[in-house]
Protein 1
Amino acid sequence: MALRVYNSLTKEKEEFIPINPPHVGMYVCGPTVSGESHLGHARPYITFDVVYRYLLYLGYKVRYVRNITDAGHFEEEGRQAEDKISSKALLEKVEPMELVHKYTSLFHWAFRQLNTLEPSIEPTATGHIVEQIGMIEQLIKAGYAYVVNGSVYFDVKKYASNYDYGKLSGRVVDDLLETTRELEGQEEKRNKADFALWKMAPPQHIMRWKSPWGEGFPGWHIECSAMATKYLGSRFDIHGGGMDLMFPHHESEIAQSTICNHASPAKYWMHNNMITVNGKKMGKSYNNQITLTQMFSGNHPLLTQGFSPMVIRFFILQTHYRSTLDFSSEALTAAEKGMKRLFEAFEVLKKLEIPDAEVPSDKELDSKINKLVDEFEEFINDDFNTAKVLANMFEIVPVINSMKDGLIKPYAISTATFKKLKESFTIFLEQILGLKDPSESSAQLNGIIDLLIEIRKEAKSKKDFFTSDKIRKQLTELGIEMKDEKDGNISWSRL
RNA sequence: GGUCCUGUGGCCGAGUGGUUAGGCAGAGCUCUGCAAAAGCUUCCACAGCGGUUCGAAUCCGCUCGGGACCUCCA
């Protein structure tokens, strides 16, 4: 079964066929490093990390480009032509680049914790001013952009007369021309729907670059078009980002690239939905963000505890990426417990060995396992339904535990089935979903605990429950839980 | 106001018209020196009202509720 992805451009699930196989070009709108990443930011980068991982698994040679927006944009177009980054920099009395560096590092750190793979290229907006200016010049030359007082605007009305502006986001241009909100500085534009490609920098603006139109800074949408074009060409396979970027950002990207490159940039547009808090989108405008460092530490009024990065990743992957996901400490706690159970079963599976059996004694179970495992691929192929993959894994958990406890006979399933289960489970959990056991410990700790287990076993065999309980109790206080198995073995895990 | 999405059991969520989603929480049982874990069983559901259909959470209409975008936003 082939991979099918929901294409926001056509509003349909389509079979994924790369433009130039085996190569795949993927562009994802990256972070604006004027502040710390919050939980909402984890959604797209984890979502597209799974997309990236799966495409790699399928054998594609993927170039994954994710930008860093370090040039900033004006807070509200026209009203205050002040760069976001420079305005905060003034406030904190530091260089803009100092902030950029700080938050870029923090971003990288947080997403390493979340086990996202690094993109192939992570271009910065400030590093591509030349390319952006070049693209703007092309747009002016083509007659789709005009210069006013040192700023350059894209002529949406003209574009719309020849192309479909609004196809991606479902806008009607006539409405846009009418209903766009009244903002200061609009008088420079020919039409309200026009957007800035280059803004003249007022004197107080710190980040500024020389351009053919005077000193200024790039508009919001041009950086992605310029960098995507530079590294992926005029036409590439996947463009991803949050749904909130669909309009005007992605719509405008399409317009810019269509004029400059004579092609709609991306074949497939993929948009992840939002993380909500009490039903409302987590975001700047609502002042309801929880930063990732707060998530990890638990240092936030809405959090009853800290959550490991893997729990956050798991929490996000338990929902389909195009659905909203409502955050609560309770939901995270539930995810944490579920994940622990899943990983404990996974540890068991990795160590489990069964005797050779060509024919399973329990044909029903054997075919059930085969079905559940085969569906991993079927579900991920269905527009990356990670929720269903995880649900199947959970259905297998009792089987694994029962095999360990001897409740299921070792030869109940065939060797081939067992081998497939082990391999697929590992590949999908670790390689594709990118989940790993957060409680992995050092060889040293393992050795120490193994020793304590030996001592405790001896005590138990002598019915010295005082000693055995003491070991268990003290370890519990240290966050390590000892569990007596049916067969007399003792296993342990972190609380 | 315009465009669009959405409403699933205590919570989070998957659902292609007919079959158990899954996780967490709750209840009972088994195992067990105790505990925990695990296993088995189980309770609780598709906002409301109509319609289409042999059959609807799933399609259509209306009502009510929630949300997103239209402005920086993942």
Protein 2
Amino acid sequence: MTTMPKKPKLTRETIVEAAIELIESEGLDSLSTRALGNRLGVQAMSLYHHVESKDVLLDLITARLATMIEFGDHTGNWRCELEAVSRSYIDIARRYPRSFPLLAARRFNTPETLPVLERILSIFRRAGLPPAGTAASFRILGYYLNGAGLTEGATIEAERRTDFHLQDSGFLEGFPVSGETVAHLALPNLSGIFEKGLEVILDSIEDEIRLTRVNRPHSV
Amino acid sequence: MTTMPKKPKLTRETIVEAAIELIESEGLDSLSTRALGNRLGVQAMSLYHHVESKDVLLDLITARLATMIEFGDHTGNWRCELEAVSRSYIDIARRYPRSFPLLAARRFNTPETLPVLERILSIFRRAGLPPAGTAASFRILGYYLNGAGLTEGATIEAERRTDFHLQDSGFLEGFPVSGETVAHLALPNLSGIFEKGLEVILDSIEDEIRLTRVNRPHSV
DNA sequence: CCGAATTGCCTTACACCGTAAGGATAATCC
DNA sequence: GGATTATCCTTACGGTGTAAGGCAATTCGG
């Protein structure tokens, strides 16, 4: 049945891993089948025996990033668990700023990512939220995390660049409020801002749960 | 000096307008210089006399979308103003779901977009927040709005598709929590969720402003 | 009023992209 | 040891962004 002729140089995993490395070092636009093959010591078309298309490759990258989400200890404290998931998620954006847009843009609806979705949604459900409340709170938190990840990633990218920095471009002339604000939008400030916004959203989820308990004390 | 030989068929504005139409009808990936030229009855290279490169074109599209933000009446009520800006922003995502990712990914640091940034930041400042607080609140709200816009746009896109719908794909088998939640994540529910999250964030800004007033009652 | 200059659009060309089709090689099984 | 089959390669096609240069129409200087 499972004959295995010729020892393989390539696997799905090594391809995905190399693709992420390539994106991080050269940028998302520079991920081409030829460049990726080159990095793996292989011709472009060889990749197609392991991955059906570039679009599927992007899905696999998304899945690889999604499964990096760490859930921490299963404490039974939903707030700690959501905090852990959220920090783990933003950490992915910080470590893979150029790949993160894939994670933010694509849904968690592949077989590889659904288990992750399931675990996250379960935290909300165990916290006492009904399906509708779970959907709402999940979306709101997700909006925030994706936006934060994208912006932090873009900021990392922008501050790495040497060719253009808004601060000394002169563009800010005539925009005094922007001028006095940009310094506070720099990378070192963003983690504090992230934590602050995260607490705001978790507080609101806490309110929602309390409200649910009052109105439907015994249902789940 | 400014001789004007030959009446032009093309202007920057018509090019940008056509590009947005093309993206919305065919998708972001289908925006090519040749396709765009074709839509304008012109060869691809003719565009380059008006726009330096495709990247600049994307910047112009971003600026065009950004300037669609409506600020409503200048009431002096910061909360109403931020609500108006936020709703106007998500409206852009809903009307231009396939172009919106450009707006979410690119910064407001071109000459065309800076006036918009300035007006938005001014709302926070006039509300009584110092520069650092302005930066934080602006970012948090921005994270939320960008995430919401992206997800709503992606949802619109996904529900338009006929080839794949998660609900009847069978993928959800074995993921009961996801299964009972997806229905609540459908497009009709998203506007309610958006409003809810928006109020949460505006409430937190209100708290922040109040706190600022207490600690530094007379400074701006 | 006519040549010169300039602008707006076009033609051609190049390197790169994703990928369809089919070929060569080497490890395994019967 | 011959057939099978998984892996990788070669070639080729139509698409991409865009650099270089050409040509025609309009306006200006004389």
